[in-house]
Amino acid sequence: MTPSPIRLGIHSFLNAMPLVWPLIKGQMDHPFEVIFDVPARLADRLAAGELDVAMVPSVEVARHPDWRLVPGSAIASNGAVGTVLVVSDRPLKEVHRLAVDAKSRTSIVMIDILFQKRFGHRPELVPMEDDLEAMLASCEAAMVIGNTAFAAVRLEGEGYRVEDLGRQWYALAHMPFVHAVYAVRGGVDLGPAAALLAQAKEGGLAQLEAIAESEGPSLGLSPDEALTYLREKIIYDLGPREVAGLETFLAIGRELGLLEGPVELRWYE
């Protein structure tokens, strides 16, 4: 009897490709069924039992006590990240109604923290689809994430302010920001497949040029622009500094009443 595949969920943004490139390109034997979805839906599907392990918004680990983090891999940044942006026609301290991309949950908590800690007020957050024109027509500012942000940054030369939230987080905490982590659903045993996630990451990081050349043009990026983003903006390791940054983020979220539950991280072993 053939064993059931392990259902691995991941988002289809450019920054996730190095984590799964060898898996989706047939470069290694593995037991995973790779399923793409947007970050918020990945969390919902993991909670519903439709996935066994998934790259989920980091804030979700505080909301699901039975989830365990897979050590070693993440999508993080240390300063400006380029793909978590706020676009506005005024200084952020003057923004009172802010459209936020409903696909993200970590970034919504992140921006709430930043407004309270950096700008001294809380705007009304309005979840919307990631249609930047509609978002800016409805609100004074818009937060966009992922691939949509690559187009949004070009508005900086058209009378809009574009603020990188990764830069703002670093100014606040002086720590990396962890955007997404691999989480395993309670009761799931990955067995030897857990080590394959690290192997896939290492294989993908060795092929950044190929990933940039393949994926960049469809996003309006030259291969060189895509490669610079992958090499210089994104951190794929979940090391001690990244863990400390994640713990700080969750602790501030609890302090401000944005999150409940324990801050202590739970690890898959």
Count of distinct strands? 11
Count of domain modules: 2
Tell me the series of helices and strands, N- to C-terminal: EHEHEEEEHEHEHEHEHHHEH
Distance between the termini: 27 Å
> Rough shape?
globular
Biggest sheet, strands in spatial order? 2-1-3-10-4-11
CATH topology of the largest domain: D-Maltodextrin-Binding Protein, domain 2
Query: In CATH, what is the class of the largest domain?
Result: Alpha Beta
Write the layout of secondary structure elements.
Elements: E1 6-10, H1 17-24, E2 32-36, H2 39-47, E3 53-57, E4 68-77, E5 84-88, E6 97-101, H3 106-119, E7 124-128, H4 132-138, E8 141-145, H5 148-152, E9 161-164, H6 165-173, E10 177-184, H7 193-205, H8 208-215, H9 223-233, E11 235-238, H10 240-255
Parallel strand pairs: 1-2, 1-3, 6-7, 6-8
Antiparallel strand pairs: 3-10, 4-10, 4-11, 5-8, 5-9
Helix pairs in contact: 1-7, 3-6, 8-9
Description of the molecule:
The structure is a single chain. Helix 1 links the parallel strand 1 and strand 2. The strands form two sheets. Strands 2-1-3-10-4-11 form a six-stranded mixed beta sheet. The protein has a five-stranded mixed beta sheet with strand order 7-6-8-5-9, with helices on both faces. It folds into two domains: 150 residues, 3-Layer(aba) Sandwich (D-Maltodextrin-Binding Protein, domain 2); 90 residues, Periplasmic binding protein-like II (D-Maltodextrin-Binding Protein, domain 2, 3-Layer(aba) Sandwich), CATH 3.40.190.10. The model has no long low-confidence stretch (mean pLDDT 93). The chain is built from ten helices and eleven strands. It is α/β, with parallel strands linked by helices. Helix 8 crosses helix 9. The longest helix is centred in the C-terminal third of the chain and has 16 residues. The chain starts with 5 loop residues before the first strand and ends in a 14-residue tail after the last helix.
